[in-house]
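Sample intake sheet
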Amino acid sequence: MTEKSAARADWESRIGKPSDERLTGIGELPAPLGLSAEDGTGHVLLTWRPVAGALGYLVHRADSAEGPFEPLDHLGGDVLAVPHPPYADTLGVPGRGYFYKVATWSDSGAGELSEAVPGSPRAAGSRPAEVTVAVDAAAPATELPGVWNRMIGAEHFSLLTWEKPGAGGSDVAKEYGEALAIVRDEIGVRSVRAHGTFLPETVTVRDDGSFDFSGLDAVYDRFLATGLRPVVELSFMPRELASDPGYTVFGYKALVSTPARWERWGDLCRELTVHLQERYGRDTVAGWEFEVWNEPNLEVFWNGSQDDYHRLYETAVRAVKGVDERIRVGGPSSAAAGWVGALLEYCRERDVPVDFVSTHTYGNAPLDFRPMTRAFAAATGRPEPEILWTEWGVTPTHFHRVSDSVFAAPFVLRGMKSALSSTDCLSYWVASDQFEELGWPPRLFHGGFGLLTVGNLRKPRFWALYLLSRLAGGRIPAAVTGDGAEGLVESLATRAEDRSTVDVLLWNGTLDQSKLDGATVLDRAATVRIGGLEPGAVHTVESHRVDERHGNIRAVWQDLDGGDWPDEQQWAKLRAADRLPAEELAPVTADADGTAVLTVGLPNPGIRFLRFTRV
């Protein structure tokens, strides 16, 4: 992970260009048809008909029908294209008129623009605008895929053996281990991805050229004791193998050079695999993912070309698979959703194994790479590669205050819901603010990437994933209608197998980070209507909220007039407040048609979790 510019020229330059239209489904995709703009309170809601083969869509806006039309930048700092409609533009001024066009987004960038449509956001009324969430409790339940808890990111695993005092005088190794246990137990995380399998403290090259993995053994022994699985990121380059031993990144000077001798890179990957099998068991290691490198499409992480990365990938995958074909290997682990099509094409041309494609994005919901993976499977006869977003978050920028904000909580739920049908994993980056890439945290609330602070206090983003993990049973339909439906306000609902409970998770958020501190014009009153219940049945209602005054530990710190780090008394108050208590609302009774109704406030940004339990 590194800082990435939000400038359009920057992120466009980082998108790879695949060489084969047949495989990737690129070429001149048609412009979307059926674009419409619905004027809403504080926003304009845009919808259009999806285009087959598109990975996403880039929304453009102008002040007149003649243009110029420019892509809307919601200030996420990375790829601006969204995966699907609808899209709520909250960047406009209420009462002012705009014109919109939409282009398809593919691996080669934006396509042709649609016809223009007008739209104008409305000013706020005297009361919050309204939405309705209709839940069908009688519908057949389907699986809710755990894209959010299959994997999470963390700083390099060698922090588990860190012995020096950390930020704010913290015990780095202890808190890092506790953070992994918290995300395991409270979110259900199953595996963890971290950089630096080949850092100097974990792997050394002996004088005779052999590899000493004793440092890695100490780290992995402690990690595996948590019951979690590692994602073995094959990075970075040992100094003795590097073509440029001075080419480094991060405060800990990870070496990101091409190898001086490519066969030695293969030896390293092969011997690592053998060593892990001998220490932890062949069947155990066969259940881990091996990912080749990290963000090679950024110069800061790779001094070679795209062709060099393909060689790095092929050398690694053939070395690992030569030890055990069952081990799942993938890449390109790229920034800004780049180089995916190019890697798939390389693997198709050279018959190179690729079990999963991995890439990263920030400040937006992930794009839909299924057209690429399906085309690869059809062209090769191989199984369709999984799609693993091995880094994802609200911002790519270190020390950005959005990471400590409530804004980030509904953002997380929006991304996870979007990913349910299009990905196999959306891995949040990262679990803990025990993190040293560009320097240790200078203060408790410093805009760290972690879901948990130093000291393991839970941020609003953590509570979003916690509430998502509380949804019990199978998924049932939940459709939002009204002012901002499915663009601002979204929902998920589940029903317990014994039909004793119905859970409804709803949230109100925007991608627009100019609204980081909230926007009352976007607040909503949400009426939840649950149909398909037993007529006359009474249900208790348990509620949890995340908003400015609920589940927002930074607000507690501000109330304490805190400085950089808490004293003992302040720590005690913060830990006492580090919870998300349940509120008991008035019971609801299903009417003669079997429908129960409840209206709740839903600020922007905000989340509401409701559990309806039959008495």
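Comment: The radius of gyration is 25 Å. The chain is about 25% helix and 25% strand.
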